[in-house]
Amino acid sequence: MDGSDFEGKIIPLPGIFDTDPLLLKRNDFSEDSVNLLIHFHGNESVVAHALAENEGWAAVTINLGNGSSAYGVPFTNPGKFDSLLSAGKSQLQQPIRKIYLSGFSAGYGAIRAILKTEHYAAIDGVLLLDGLHASYVPARTPLSMGGRIQEQDLAAFEKLAKDALSGKKSFVFTHSSIFPGTFVSTTECADFLLAATGIPRKPVLKAGPLGMQQVGESAQGKLRILAFAGNTAPDHIDHLHGLYHFIRLLF
Length: 251
Fold this sequence. Notes:
Layout: E1 8-12, E2 22-26, E3 34-40, H1 44-53, E4 57-62, H2 68-72, H3 78-91, E5 96-104, H4 108-115, E6 125-129, E7 136-137, E8 148-149, H5 155-165, E9 170-175, H6 186-197, E10 202-207, E11 213-220, E12 223-228, H7 233-241, H8 243-246
Parallel strand pairs: 3-4, 3-5, 5-6, 6-9, 9-12
Antiparallel strand pairs: 1-2, 2-4, 7-8, 10-11, 11-12
């Protein structure tokens, strides 16, 4: 997905990070207000394609490097999110209807940091694309070797999952079958959230976007956790390129 079907403007938002976030807005807004998607980690062309395929959205895309800490550390300062939101609003002609966060891979680090601040109340929903990890305790000791999950790493998402269960927020989490081994996999994080909310994982076998093979689904309220086959790098990248499809599940 190269975003070549996107007809709109891509506007840098300078002065917030070392690498400028980009605001993407369509030329053909037909509504009085827009949903704003703030996406962490992923080429703007993928986000542009998602906007081209879905009316009523504008987006900001942020790329801060590799690793969840590259995304998480800046947003421990709530003022960074204030600045980002203010810069985005200044370039939009329409009022913002709802604010959604999405993160691919390491991008979840920024979302976790934001959810731990007072900005939690302003976030209407979150989309995680094969991106949610935690540490093992002891470090680098998988569950199969007697380790356990550092639950504090997932506390913000457990709160979000429970709020989505009751319909207060939206939370969509897609994950592959990749097991890194030295830190908690997205599958293990999904299992943790399902156990915390008491929702069973329903086995399914059906096609997802881009030929992805979905093998599990858990849905209740506005919480959706979707499991997909695949344990290779291309399988991981498919989750990002499926953004255009997965954002539709936030409603």
